[in-house]
Amino acid sequence: SQQGEEDPQALSIQEGENATMNCSYKTSINNLQWYRQNSGRGLVHLILIRSNEREKHSGRLRVTLDTSKKSSSLLITASRAADTASYFCATDTFFSGNTGKLIFGQGTTLQVKP
Amino acid sequence: DADVTQTPRNRITKTGKRIMLECSQTKGHDRMYWYRQDPGLGLRLIYYSFDVKDINKGEISDGYSVSRQAQAKFSLSLESAIPNQTALYFCATSRGLSSTDTQYFGPGTRLTVL
After folding, report:
1. CB of A89 within 8 Å of any CB in chain B?
2. How far is the C-alpha of B91 from the C-alpha of B25, rounded, in Å?
3. I want to staple B4 with a disulfide (CB 3.0 to 4.6 A). Which of A19, B18, B32, B106 is the partner?
4. For residue range B15-54, what is the model confidence (pLDDT) as tens digits?
5. Contact residues on chain A for B102, CB-CB shorter than 8 A
6. H helices, E strands: number in chain A
7. Rounded to an integer, what distance in angstroms lies between the CA atom of residue A20 and that of residue A72?
8. Do B42 and A88 touch, CB atoms closer than 8 A?
9. Residue B47 in 3-state DSSP?
10. Min distance A98 CA to chain B CA atoms (Å)
């Protein structure tokens, strides 16, 4: 079964609004990553947050991590039409050691209307 | 030029045919991965390789085989394709130096099995 589950599955907003996507996972982790996928293209890494971090920023992206609730959120502020894409969270597993294996959620499809 | 390339980009084949998908990378990474993506299921790991001599099964390896011909090349084969292997296939690489590795994805191969 999937380690990460994302909510909502689809999100449609107007340009300039903020978009929030959530990810829940099941087992202890070392870190959680967010990736972006434009339609039919490969995934691109956005941001990584370690298990001992609670919040991280990168440009218009803000990621939070709550290990007690096994959840993370990705906030995109002041969204643009170019942010239209699918967004995936991915986790390693605490007990996998340095295998580099990631488990991906099903993704949130974001549409930003001009 | 792209760091991770996949060939072919699109392939239509018939049930029972043998198919090979190829992945090449110029990033100098030791670790390579094959995923498949199905609508609503995110990415699932098929096989991964830590180096030329180290190949491991992922979550859904049945019906697939791989070959790591060199550090830069990792091929995925479907020995006898079946319709439920219709999917988008991605190759990815990572450095493998730490648990905070990120993965770099190719553009994907869209495979249709009739």
Report:
1. no
2. 9
3. B106
4. 999 999 999 999 999 999 999 999 877 899 999 998 888 9
5. 33, 45, 48
6. 0, 11
7. 10
8. yes
9. strand
10. 5
